[in-house]
């Protein structure tokens, strides 16, 4: 049988390295190297990159211990050992925190779309992204993330039926006793004893409903702002200077790519995992590789930003040139030796 744990571990380690290096590069360029005044957009970029690093770091600390598995009417998020000798309860909370960072990142991305919409159509209101007002947007993302995490923690709390439902498949695939590992489990349908009839386990179903509401809210914000910018932006930009128009178009392209990328790398995998149990199909599938893909998303976002926006691309090139010159400067040329 294919060793899914090793595959998940490799993907996670690669995602951690690529994400941390790319996001730290973005933070460095934003704070020290980009010469143009990007206004509050700089703060939003730094915040989003910071959450991306934390997201990848937490996953790296949990891997290869953590995983995701789908089975018929259920899925389980779990940790298969005790990193740092932590308690089962603490690690279960840590799983919920990991999930909350996912939603916080999406919320901050939605805030970037709101900022760009206001910058084009209502620039007088950009003051609401500066100084103390910025804390409101941070609180918004944190609040959405915390609510998401608490919802998963409470609604997906393990009970006797969910333990029994996942016991066999977890033992077959991973040689794990589900009763002894930190985990969060969703089982949508429960069979009535001595009957073939089933009923919906609404507590677990509410976990899916809760995630759907808040994820859809963020995604709707991004789609609406993208639609308005796509249709009406050119008329507004005609009143600006050529440099300003160019920057707005570049940031808009960045945001469009930032909408498409999480759709593929984050929304589609998550909604696939959380809605498959409603179909109650006979299948079992190691979906833990999705967690590694989640860690790759912030890296893709950073690459988009540095490639599309000229100021970031130039700043990166300047930094690379500087390090290349510095490297050449410290290389001591070897003196020729005379042979007798």
UniProtKB/TrEMBL annotation:
The chain crosses the membrane at residues 12-32, 44-63, 90-111, 132-153, 205-227, 255-276, 288-309. Pfam families: 7TM_GPCR_Str. It comes from Caenorhabditis elegans. InterPro entries: 7TM_GPCR_serpentine_rcpt_Str. Keywords: Membrane, Receptor, Transmembrane, Transmembrane helix. It comes from the Eukaryota. The keyword Transmembrane helix applies. This is Seven TM Receptor. Signal peptide: none annotated.
């Amino acid at each position: 049988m294919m060793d899914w744990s090793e595959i998940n571990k490799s993907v996670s380690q690669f995602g951690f390295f690529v994400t941390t290096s790319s996001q730290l590069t973005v933070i460095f360029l934003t704070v020290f190297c980009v010469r143009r005044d990007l206004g509050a957009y700089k703060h939003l970029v730094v915040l989003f990159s910071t959450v991306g690093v934390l997201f990848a770091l937490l996953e790296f600390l949990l891997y290869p211990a953590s995983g995701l598995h789908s089975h018929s009417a259920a899925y389980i998020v779990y940790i298969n050992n005790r990193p740092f000798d932590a308690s089962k309860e603490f690690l279960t909370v840590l799983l919920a925190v990991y999930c909350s960072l996912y939603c916080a990142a999406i919320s901050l991305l939605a805030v970037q779309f709101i900022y760009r919409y206001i910058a084009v159509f209502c620039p007088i209101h950009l003051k609401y992204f500066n100084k103390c007002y910025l804390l409101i947007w941070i609180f918004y993302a944190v609040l959405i993330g915390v609510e998401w995490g608490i919802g998963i923690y409470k609604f997906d709390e393990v009970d006797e039926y969910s333990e029994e439902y996942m016991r066999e498949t977890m033992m077959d695939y991973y040689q794990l006793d589900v009763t002894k590992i930190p985990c969060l489990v969703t089982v949508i349908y429960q069979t009535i004893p001595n009957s073939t009839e089933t009923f919906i386990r609404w507590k677990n179903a509410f976990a899916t409903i809760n995630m759907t509401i808040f994820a859809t809210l963020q995604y709707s914000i991004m789609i609406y702002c993208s639609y308005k910018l796509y249709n009406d932006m050119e008329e507004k930009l005609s009143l600006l200077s050529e440099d300003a128009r160019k920057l707005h178009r570049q940031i808009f392209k960045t945001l469009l790519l930032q909408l498409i990328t999480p759709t593929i790398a984050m929304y589609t995998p998550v909604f696939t995992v959380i809605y498959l149990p409603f179909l109650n199909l006979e299948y079992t599938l190691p979906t833990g590789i999705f967690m590694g893909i989640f860690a790759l998303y912030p890296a893709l976002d950073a690459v988009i930003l540095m490639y599309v926006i000229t100021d970031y691309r130039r700043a990166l090139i300047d930094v690379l040139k500087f390090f290349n010159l510095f490297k050449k400067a410290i290389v001591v040329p070897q003196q020729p030796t005379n042979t007798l």
